[in-house]
Design brief:
The chain is α/β, with parallel strands linked by helices. The chain is built from 17 helices and 29 strands. The protein folds into 3 domains: 245 residues, Rossmann fold, CATH 3.40.50.12780; 103 residues, Luciferase, domain 3, CATH 2.30.38.10; 107 residues, GMP Synthetase, Chain A, domain 3 (2-Layer Sandwich), CATH 3.30.300.30.
Length: 555
């Protein structure tokens, strides 16, 4: 077994060097790297990094708006044995100073002062006494250097968890575990000489980095990488590209597929052909059975096969993937008795005349992984009993970097407490929700308490009188992020206050769908003073909290 992905890349460069490996969008065309060029660029970047003083074991924060630069940085850092951590830019950067403050917090958290950026960002993040800024394009000016043996061992990457977006935790994944994980993924999701990938997911997202970039690299098939910004501007181009290049593999959160529903008629008119897709991976957010059906029906005239959907479950703490279905197997949707579920915690099959809930099966554990459903006492529960999802895997993280306490809270006796709820049925996992009020939206896991702390610090908002909740949206196939805050400001003052809330959250990469202001002492609380988040969700769904006070903060 290879000790690192770089060894596999070097093999590809040696054995199939002149074949296409990766495509980047360049204006209205594509820039192509062969496998030999892929490996050459990694070593050229490594030489430039080494000349700049970066060495084995160094942690480097990567901030890039350009996909090609992000890939170059990732591979170059690995080639010299450094440990990259990809950081995402907010969708709209309206508070540069706040973003830079958060950037410096992340640098301190990773115990580094080195930031690697693309040239387009140099004006925004210039060097200073406590921050060394390297530019990816400048590293490529010299010839290729040699890979160091250090790249084979130690940390492969630090994944900044989307779950702790107030101050993200960094998940440390070693090289050997990453390789083992890619082997497990490849066993359950085989590829072939005719495989072609298309991905628009950002590389700071675990599904984008490992599923979009590293899985094709590991298995030696080409991938077309689009920019996430390009997808947001023109999601139709994702569909066009898959049709044109005869894509076999792609991945997106449910919200990505939901955006494309309105494009089905256009796709039919343009005669797009999606028949080659054998894996349309879907995950990172709750998966709506209705969305799966709507997309399959809408794109059936384009020869999209319903069985191409590949619902998965995973998290950064497990490197990325925990469970996979069988390739090209019909999506399993479980219709369960709603009363049994809500009142008893049982997932019993619903009778024809019974109210029901539907959940999508996300497959069974990967090789080397185990799933345990436990009750509140830590005891395993039988099939179709809802409980806490615990996992054990040979690709689990070593821990949260620099946060032993947080690591100890979730890793116990080799098992990881995911914080999710679900049940098993005939070997298939069904995820039903979160045990800690986690908000999952647009592929990101948002912790309510982190959002509430940020908003509480804004002048005009009553401190500790804020609730952040996720309200399910069938239309968007994700959760709408809603912030309800108490304030004494009048209607005119709430307009500026809503903007302040949005700006402060955007600095940390958090987009909010609704900001609602209420008078002091409005938020419902328990007898011990805790805010009742689930009751607030119900009030939002019923419209009780919607009204004039919301107008300034609605998107």
């Amino acid at each position: 077994m290879e000790r690192s992905l770089l060894q596999r890349l070097a093999q590809h460069a040696d054995r199939r060097g002149d074949r296409p490996a990766i495509f980047f969008r360049a204006g209205n065309d594509w820039e192509t790297w062969t496998w030999a060029e892929y490996w050459d660029r990694a070593r050229r970047a490594a030489r430039g990094l080494r000349a700049s003083g970066v060495g084995p074991g160094d942690r480097v924060l990567v901030l890039s708006s350009d996909v090609k630069s992000a890939v170059t940085a990732q591979l170059g850092l690995w080639t010299i044995g450094a440990i990259p951590a990809q950081l995402g830019l907010p969708d709209r950067l309206t508070n540069l100073d706040g973003f830079l403050d958060e950037l410096h917090h992340t640098l301190r958290q990773l115990e580094t002062n080195t930031l690697l950026v693309d040239r387009a960002l140099t004006a925004m993040v210039s060097p200073r006494d406590d921050r060394r800024v390297l530019v990816v394009e400048d590293l490529m000016e010299g010839p290729a250097g040699d890979a160091t043996d250090s790249q084979s061992v130690g940390g492969a990457l630090l994944q900044l968890t989307s779950g702790s977006t107030g101050h993200p935790r960094a998940v440390l994944v070693p090289h050997d575990r990453l390789v083992r994980h890619l082997e497990s993924i490849s066993q359950r999701l085989p590829s072939s000489a005719s495989s072609v990938g298309v991905s628009w997911l950002p590389l700071y997202h675990d599904m984008g980095l490992i599923g979009g970039l590293l899985y094709p690299c590991f298995n030696g098939f080409p991938v077309y990488l689009l920019s996430p910004l390009e997808f947001r501007r023109n999601p139709y181009f994702w569909l066009q590209t898959m049709s044109r290049v005869r894509a076999t593999h792609t991945a997106a959160p449910p919200s990505g597929y939901a955006v494309c529903l309105r494009l089905a008629a256009r796709a039919l008119e343009d005669q797009l052909d999606l028949s080659s897709l054998g894996c349309a991976m879907i995950g990172a957010e709750p998966i709506s059975p209705r969305l799966v059906r709507q997309f399959a029906e809408g794109f059936a005239p384009c020869s999209f096969r319903p069985e191409a959907f590949f619902p998965v479950y995973g998290l950064a703490e497990a490197t990325v993937a925990v469970t996979f279905p069988e390739p090209l197997a019909p999506t399993r949707v479980d219709a369960i008795d709603r009363d049994q579920f809500e009142l008893e915690g049982n997932a019993r099959t619903a009778g024809d005349d019974r109210p029901r809930l539907e959940f999508v099966g996300v497959g069974s554990p990967l090789p080397g992984a185990e799933v345990s459903i436990r009750d509140g006492r830590g005891q395993d529960v039988p099939d179709r009993r809802v409980g806490e999802i615990w996992i054990r895997s040979d690709s689990l993280m070593e821990g949260y970097y620099g946060d032993a306490d947080a690591t100890a809270r979730v890793l116990k006796d080799g098992w990881l407490d995911t914080g999710d709820l679900g049940y098993m049925a005939s070997g298939v996992l069904f995820v039903t929700g979160r045990s800690k009020d986690l908000i999952i939206t647009r592929g990101r896991n948002l912790v309510p308490s982190a959002i509430e702390e940020i908003v509480s610090s804004i002048p005009g908002v009553r401190k500790d009188c804020v609730a952040a909740v996720g309200v399910p949206s069938e239309e968007r196939a994700t959760e709408r992020v809603c912030v309800v805050a108490e304030t004494r400001a009048d209607a005119s003052g709430q307009t500026g206050l809503a903007s302040a809330v949005r700006d402060e959250l955007k600095v940390r990469g958090i987009s909010v769908d609704r900001v609602i202001f209420v008078p002091p002492r409005t938020l419902p609380r328990t007898s011990s003073g805790k805010i009742k988040r689930q009751l607030i969700v119900q009030l939002l769904q019923s419209g009780v909290l919607a009204g004039p006070r919301e107008a300034a903060g609605t998107r």
